[in-house]
Amino acid sequence: MVTRRELVRALAGAVGEAAVIYRPEDLLLYEYDATIEKSQPYAVVLPATAQEVADCVHVCRSFGIPVTPRGAGTGLSGGAVPARAGVVISTARMRQILEIDVENRLAVVQPGVANLHVSEAAAVHGLFYAPDPSSQKACTIGGNVAENAGGPHCLALGVTQNHVLGIEVVTADGDVRWLGGRVPDAHGYDLRGLFIGSEGTLGIATSVIVRLLPVPPSVRTLLAIFDSIEAASRTVSAVIGAGMITAALEMRDNDTIRAAEAGLHCGYPEDAGAVLLIELDGVADAVEAQSGRATDICYANGTREVRSASSAAERALLWRGRKEAIGSLGQLAPNYYILDGVVPRSRLVETMRRVEAISAAAGLQVANVFHAGDGNLHPCIVFDEREPGATARVLEAGAAVMQACVDAGGALSGEHGVGFEKQQFMAWLYNEADLENMARLRPVFGNDGLFNPCKVIPEGTGCGEMAHQAAALRAAGPDAYI
Ligand SMILES: Cc1cc2nc3c(=O)[nH]c(=O)nc-3n(C[C@H](O)[C@H](O)[C@H](O)COP(=O)(O)OP(=O)(O)OC[C@H]3O[C@@H](n4cnc5c(N)ncnc54)[C@H](O)[C@@H]3O)c2cc1C
User: Phi-psi region for residue 143, left (φ > 0), alpha (ψ -120 to 50) or beta?
Assistant: First the structure.
């Protein structure tokens, strides 16, 4: 048993007083991520080194207090929300790019570095880091590793898993270890691969070696405009079916276009039923030939018009309209709930129809943004949480959408992870033996139940009362036992 005051004192011993956040008004910032679940931690620590991270983990273990790692808090499955209160370990002070090794085309970065900063730093050498989540201005490399993040350009180049060579990790029991290293394909079991996508349940990444790629010599960005989502979806299947590997193939529906145009003014046609952003890159001649082919396929499948960005500024504007589209949904309603499911591309159209039917039945408005080439859909339910019962209705509709993805032969997440949000749905896809096998991996990294609890694998009791817990915590004084 320990009081909050004693816990804070012990953490301050590990990282210094200035790096511990414990006042209730400050903790408010750490009770949520980019989804809608909330739970307040007892304290947040901001270590600056792997050793300080390890010391914090040891302090928490000695008191039997849960630990939740946190990057930028842009996660969309509640992964950084401290479901059973406890201590949040934030990587916000670990923000340095330690090395760019041009000869070996890699960078060594601390976990709190924002994704985009890696490509910005590598650009002077003609290199870039490929996985580009739409949140890349804010989300961290540590969070990307934990979620195996994807992005618009992962269609051709692969997700985080394909671009991380090695990770220094503080395991759930406070050991500092390296998984993988500076060269690919190390022998033996791939523990690096296991850690990537483990959603902060096995340990905290404290240093990451990422692969860098040469910036392509030529890029062409096309905007294909359609009257309907059906025609745009048919085109996606036709492009992929023709054997083309586009650098990106992104779709947005009318609601998302209108919301983004209202705030961003990127020049998207507001009367379109859907648009496809198609990017081709490589050597100039091949890009020209491929963009001609893609344009022909669009017209054969009913596009109204294909525009081509004629300058870097125009291209940046088109991408701004895509990458900042989700943030623009604030134009439609004060809150949004973004879902993340994957279906086989050939079942995209029928799944979209089911999503439409679900939202209509619930009286909810849904805007759609997708990494269409991957069959990864993001229905965004827009709503106002101040309306009584709205959040419950939204969560219910969200569950029905996930069920629709599973029924179509898909999966629960393309990139945002299972986190807290979808752990109870795991049994739709995995039987008890599968879930048990997953759970058995946790003790290998020292997780005996207190490291990012209530995430990924259904745990049942104690995981559903997050909001109440937060309220009770606020009411209890610093000398109450926790
Ligand atoms: C507008 C918007 C657009 C988005 N677009 C995309 C997209 O295109 N593709 C995509 O994949 N995602 C996208 N996301 C989701 C999110 O940005 C990613 O999941 C991202 O990887 C989370 O990084 P973060 O630093 O914010 O992590 P957080 O939200 O802080 O944490 C996410 C998870 O990672 C764990 N974690 C954080 N840091 C570490 C660490 N150092 N070691 C171990 N575990 C850690 C946490 O415990 C948690 O489980 C989007 C989010 C938003 C809000």
Answer: alpha
To test the ligand 1 pocket, which listed residue (67, 70, 418) has its Cβ within 8 A of the most ligand atoms? 70
Q: Which amino acid would we find at residue 133?
A: P
Atom of ligand 1 nearest to the CA of 202: 43
Inter-residue contact 253 to 229 (CB < 8 Å):
yes
Residue nearest to atom 28 of ligand 1 (CA): 73
* Residue spans of the chain under pLDDT 70: 461-462, 464-474
**Structural domains of the chain, with CATH:** 4-92+438-475 (3.30.43.10), 97-214 (3.30.465.10), 218-327 (3.30.70.2190), 333-420 (3.30.70.2740)
Lookup result for tokens 């339910």: 381
Per-residue model confidence as pLDDT tens digits over 385-434: 999 999 999 999 999 999 999 999 999 999 999 999 999 999 999 999 99
What pLDDT does residue 373 have?
84
Q: Tell how strand 87-90 and strand 67-70 pair up.
A: parallel
- Name the amino acid, one letter, at 294: A
DSSP string, 278-330: EEEEESHHHHHHHHHHHHHHHHHTT-SEEEE--SHHHHHHHHHHHHTHHHHGG
> pLDDT tens for residues 312-362?
999 999 999 999 988 889 889 999 999 999 999 888 889 989 999 999 999
How remote is the CA of residue 349 from the centroid of ligand 1, in Å?
A: 28
Determine whether 477 is exposed, middle or buried from the number of CB atoms within 10 Å of its CB (0-12, 13-18, 19+): exposed
Q: How far is the CA of 217 from the centre of ligand 1 (A)?
A: 30
Q: Is residue 106 helix, strand or coil? A: strand
Pocket test for ligand 1, best of 134, 147, 207 (most atoms within 8 A of CB): 147
> Using a CB cutoff of 8 Å and minimum separation of 24, what contacts does 284-292 make?
284/217, 284/218, 287/218, 287/219, 287/220, 288/220, 290/220, 290/244, 290/246, 291/220, 291/222
Distance 415 CA to ligand 1 centre (A): 9
pTM: 0.95
Helix, strand, coil % in the chain, rounded to nearest 5: 40, 20, 40
Residue type, 17: E
Question: CA 64 to CA 200: how far, in whole Å?
Answer: 18
Find where tokens 């499948």 sit. Answer: 301
